[in-house]
Design goal:
The chain has 619 residues and is of the alpha+beta class. It has an 18-stranded antiparallel beta sheet, sandwiched between helices. A hairpin with a 2-residue loop joins strand 5 and strand 6. The longest helix has 32 residues.
Length: 619
């Protein structure tokens, strides 16, 4: 009996330690991108719960669960167990390559029946223990509790061969995949991107066609230096936890980018940021980052026919910023900033609540350089304004003009005299936009609004470092690559969201544009001939009743089936639209208000940058 128990224990121990390879690990080596799920049933239930509550708001209490429940169970029985989709570069005759997709999921009985119903019964091929057939433009099959599909036959056959035990390079043996995956940890839903492999494919394709030009070479070098990236999240009862791991390529040719990616520092900026800030994103900013950005602006400027970046000398000033800037930077949204973004008619209103902090390493050099730097930024803004107006004139306020936000788009849609007013709106939007700056302690504070700058300079305001919520987040400020802190935001009402949606539709801008038009004197216009009244059509009169032909008599209208008519209660189009938007806004506001803030921490070890986040959300 004792020997039997010992044997059982050994077998159980072997079963737990000899873990079967996951579906993703059996993929061919060299994946450019993967999307993976693992034990994601909890996440599916939580997101489905949100969807059910939203549907209930439209179709009635209890109806949402009936509509979504079946599909939810199919998802839990497939993606909720384990699934992976990968993109691969597959070679063809003549040395060409094409991106191809391979996806596979485990299925239970219910989900298996569902997927089987989507496949036409055909005679197919067999690879080891698995069969597949051509299904339209793809190749798919189902066997041994798996459903698999691919856009390339050879890719699918290679994967099925690996599942059947064939020896071949696997993703699980690829260092490019395993390093960031292990640093990230297992997640319910995750993403993997191999930038270096993608750069290799792009470089090869360009070399065969146009020979890699000097203008594109830095782009490919930067992509190669990004290395590999993995990110994912797992839902919890209190929200979700997220993690990412970025394995930068230490052998990449873009070494300045590598140094920027792997920079770390000790943070003290929390001692000067106001405690009531609504969002803080702090990061280690290598002093070389300004010069790096300047070089990219110079490359972009080669494609700019107007050359306002060259005229402003902005790139030159960015390169010189390395002489006086330190390793800390933070982008801060001040109190009131989040709701300010709801007014689409003034798209830059958020700048009144946005400031940037940069640690200064050489204060004397900074004070000497900043006047010229600010002047170059403002010159670039003025150049951008002139360029935008030139493009709008050349476009005659067509498609580009109508796509502009708020009042400019509305004026463009009206055209004519209102088109001229939209050019004035560009001046109103960018004409007063100027960079302002000041120093506080060891930090340079920049903004594009004096209001925001004054708020950041208020030394009577409590500092974020002393805020109880910030302290409770437990963020480590030593040897850090960066951190994020967002306290519980103020709730948003459905009415506020409705106004934002209506503002984004350009209603106010249309009224303003029409006011600018010269309207002919109606007294000089000839009297219009009398016409018979006709029933209104939806979307034209404001009434929602179906239109009848002008030849229809009253008797014909009386004979119409009552089911073919509906009563709108005398509501106009605007009232009906407002009511619809109000209902949607209330639901959206409820989903938004469940978000209670987040925090994250990033660290660097060697060439790997890892981030851990905690998002508070009431499912």
């Amino acid at each position: 009996m004792r020997n039997a128990l010992l044997l059982t224990a050994l077998l159980l121990g072997t079963a737990t330690t000899a873990r079967a390879a996951s579906l993703s690990e059996q993929l061919p080596a060299g994946a450019l991108l993967t999307l993976e799920t693992k034990n994601a049933g909890g996440a599916i239930d939580r997101f489905a719960g949100l969807l059910v509550s939203a549907v209930n708001g439209f179709v009635g209490e209890g109806q949402g669960g009936q509509m979504i429940g079946g599909f939810q169970q199919i998802l839990k029985g497939s993606l909720g167990q384990e699934a992976v989709a990968g993109v691969f570069s597959v070679g063809h005759a003549g040395g060409t390559f094409s991106p191809e997709l391979l996806a596979v999921t485990r299925v239970d009985k219910l989900s298996g029946e569902f997927f089987s119903s989507l496949m036409a019964p055909k005679k197919g091929a067999r690879v080891g223990n698995y069969t597949f057939s051509r299904q339209g433009d793809t190749f798919a099959g189902m066997a041994n509790g798996l459903v698999y599909v691919s856009t390339n036959k050879d890719l699918l056959m290679g994967y099925l061969g690996r599942l059947s035990g064939k020896t071949a390079p696997r993703l699980m043996n690829s260092v490019a995949y395993t390093v960031p995956q292990r640093a990230m940890g297992q997640q319910e839903l995750s993403l993997f991107v191999n930038f270096s492999a993608t750069a290799k494919v792009i470089r090869g394709a360009l070399a065969r066609t146009i020979k890699l030009p000097r203008l594109l070479s830095p782009l490919v070098d930067a992509l190669d230096t990004l290395g590999q990236y993995a990110a994912g999240f797992t839902t919890t009862a209190g929200g979700l936890t997220a993690a990412s791991a970025h394995a930068a390529n230490a052998q990449g040719k873009d070494q300045p980018l590598y140094r920027i990616l792997t920079d770390s520092t000790d943070f003290a900026v929390q001692n000067v940021i106001p405690a009531d800030a609504e969002s803080v994103v702090a990061s280690a900013c290598h002093p070389e980052s300004g010069a790096y950005l300047g070089r990219w602006l110079t490359r972009v400027d080669l494609l700019d026919p107007l050359g306002f970046l060259t005229d402003s000398q902005l790139a030159s000033h960015l390169e010189r910023s390395a002489r006086y800037l330190g390793h800390e930077c933070a982008q801060v949204t001040l109190a009131g900033g989040m709701k300010s973004g709801l007014d689409a008619s003034t798209p830059l209103s958020g700048l009144d609540y946005s400031v940037t902090y940069r640690r200064v390493a050489d204060m004397d050099a900074a004070r000497a350089q900043l006047p010229e730097y600010a002047a170059s930024v403002n010159a670039a803004i003025a150049g951008a304004s002139d360029s935008l107006k030139t493009l709008l004139k050349d476009d005659t306020l067509g498609g580009m003009g109508r796509s502009m936000p708020g009042r400019m788009g509305a004026a463009a849609a009206v055209g004519g005299a209102a088109a001229d007013s939209s050019l004035k709106m560009v001046d109103d939007l960018l004409g007063n936009l100027k960079m302002v700056y000041a120093f506080r302690g060891e930090y340079l504070i920049t903004a594009f609004s004096q209001t925001a700058l004054d708020a950041a300079l208020d030394e009577t305001a409590p500092a974020l470092a002393q805020d109880a919520g910030f302290v409770a987040a437990g963020l480590n400020m030593k040897f850090s690559a960066g951190w994020t802190y967002v306290p519980n935001p103020a709730d948003l009402s459905g009415e506020e969201l409705s106004r934002a949606i209506l503002s984004g539709m350009g209603g106010e801008g249309m009224d303003t544009a029409l006011d600018d038009l010269e309207v002919p004197d109606t007294a000089e216009a000839p009297e219009a001939p009398a016409v018979a009244q006709v029933p209104a059509t939806p979307g034209q009169s404001g009434k929602g009743r179906p239109a009848a032909s002008q030849t229809n008599s009253t008797d014909e209208m009386d004979d119409m089936d009552p089911d073919m008519m509906f009563d709108d209660g005398g509501l106009g189009d605007g009232e009906m639209m407002s009511g619809m938007i109000g209902g949607v806004s209330d639901l959206a506001a409820d989903l938004i208000n469940r978000y209670d803030g987040q925090s994250s921490q990033s660290t660097v070890q060697g060439n790997v940058i890892t981030s851990k986040s905690n998002v508070l959300y009431r499912w």
